[in-house]
Amino acid sequence: METANPDSLISHFFYNHFTSMGLPETSAMYLNMLLLLGIVLVLVYSTAVVARKIMLSVSQKFSDKTSTQFDDFLIQNKTFKHLAKIIPLIIVVQSLPVVFSDFPGWIKPLRTLTDMYTVVLAIAIVRALLRSLKDYLKTTELFKDKPVDSFLQVISIFLYFVGGLLIFSLLTGKEVWAFITAMGAASAILLLVFKDTILGFVASIQVSSNDMVRIGDWITMEKYGADGDVTEINLTTVKVQNWDKTITTIPTYYLISDSFKNWRGMQRTGGRRIKRSIHLKISSIKYLSQQDIERMSKIQLVTNYLEERRQQIDAYNLENEIDKSLLINGRNLTNAGVFRAYASAYIEQNQFVHKELTMMVRQLEPTTTGMPIELYVFANDVRWAYYEVIMADIFDHLLAAVKYFDLEVFEHPAADDMRHLSNALAGSRMPGYMPEPMQN
């Protein structure tokens, strides 16, 4: 079997030797094919190892010399490792006609397999580039809190879809457009199958464009038990790390269809709201006599307030000839009002209260649990642990200060109260019984 074609000489190199040795042509053809296949496999393996080492070595040296992190992410996501597979693939494609020259019926199926592998390799390279791009964007100020994962996942899905079409076209021998046309009839089924993906994609766009949630935001979504920091926003889910370190996964489109609370505004302003009440016992509220006013004037935070108010009230009562033999007549100071003034002065001079945000001490509607005196202020430290300490210190002080204004804090009867009352009622029926004083 003589030919002047160099490829033919290579493909029949062993065949010519085997036939000259007297082997049958069929056996010589198979042995020739197996030997050539073995040589190609060794060459492909050796080339793959050498190409990978050279590619990784060169890319690592290049990465060390550059200041950008993008090439580091390319190495981390094995982009160059996938690129190194292109050279062995070229060798395989070029060697098929040589190795299987005596078996032309095998070439087309094997070429189809290599084409399919080419599609898979191309998808792997593009996905490695996309992952590297995602990691790099997350390190930048502009994109570090944006849902980059969602958009890259959409590109990945589109990439898989195109790759699937190409592989299907290679297997069936039909044009890609013919398959797309046939898929038109099944579009309703596709919409049903990819419903969550489509909803998630639309939600991701709306979340990003309306700046509703960013990575790192503290959100609260009681319906799904979420209360913590957003750690990831992707195409279908939002991951929230709760304060107890558990992870809550919420479908992305629920951020649009349901209500949630984003605490970003609080963190941005640097003030965290304190909104808590002290319930005063209504029976302890009274008008202040002159003696009471003089005694409370020794409390430094209300000294000036009492002096100013007393002058205003005395001038009013004198002008209107008010009979002050009874305190109820005319204008008067009350211990509850003075306590409110004290609480206002206390939070105004407290170094842990945000002075640029609302500071208010107000009286709420009396209830069966007394009259609430509510503090509406903002701590100047938004960190949870520090916020709790600031709030506790403020109310520790105010609760201890209540008694200096002849006020009492409302409390429901405790077990000891009920026991003393029961003993008192039982003992009142016994001659000569004297009840024990109740202990505070």
UniProtKB/TrEMBL annotation:
<feature type="transmembrane region" description="Helical">
    <location>
        <begin position="151"/>
        <end position="170"/>
    </location>
</feature>
<dbReference type="InterPro" id="IPR030192">
    <property type="entry name" value="YbdG"/>
</dbReference>
<dbReference type="GO" id="GO:0071470">
    <property type="term" value="P:cellular response to osmotic stress"/>
</dbReference>
<feature type="transmembrane region" description="Helical">
    <location>
        <begin position="176"/>
        <end position="194"/>
    </location>
</feature>
<dbReference type="InterPro" id="IPR006685">
    <property type="entry name" value="MscS_channel_2nd"/>
</dbReference>
<keyword id="KW-0997">Cell inner membrane</keyword>
<feature type="domain" description="Mechanosensitive ion channel MscS">
    <location>
        <begin position="196"/>
        <end position="264"/>
    </location>
</feature>
<keyword id="KW-1003">Cell membrane</keyword>
<dbReference type="InterPro" id="IPR010920">
    <property type="entry name" value="LSM_dom_sf"/>
</dbReference>
<keyword id="KW-1133">Transmembrane helix</keyword>
<keyword id="KW-0346">Stress response</keyword>
<feature type="transmembrane region" description="Helical">
    <location>
        <begin position="86"/>
        <end position="107"/>
    </location>
</feature>
<feature type="transmembrane region" description="Helical">
    <location>
        <begin position="113"/>
        <end position="130"/>
    </location>
</feature>
<dbReference type="InterPro" id="IPR023408">
    <property type="entry name" value="MscS_beta-dom_sf"/>
</dbReference>
<dbReference type="GO" id="GO:0005886">
    <property type="term" value="C:plasma membrane"/>
</dbReference>
<protein>
    <recommendedName>
        <fullName>Mechanosensing system component YbdG</fullName>
    </recommendedName>
</protein>
<keyword id="KW-0472">Membrane</keyword>
<feature type="transmembrane region" description="Helical">
    <location>
        <begin position="29"/>
        <end position="51"/>
    </location>
</feature>
<keyword id="KW-0812">Transmembrane</keyword>
<dbReference type="Pfam" id="PF00924">
    <property type="entry name" value="MS_channel_2nd"/>
</dbReference>
<dbReference type="GO" id="GO:0008381">
    <property type="term" value="F:mechanosensitive monoatomic ion channel activity"/>
</dbReference>
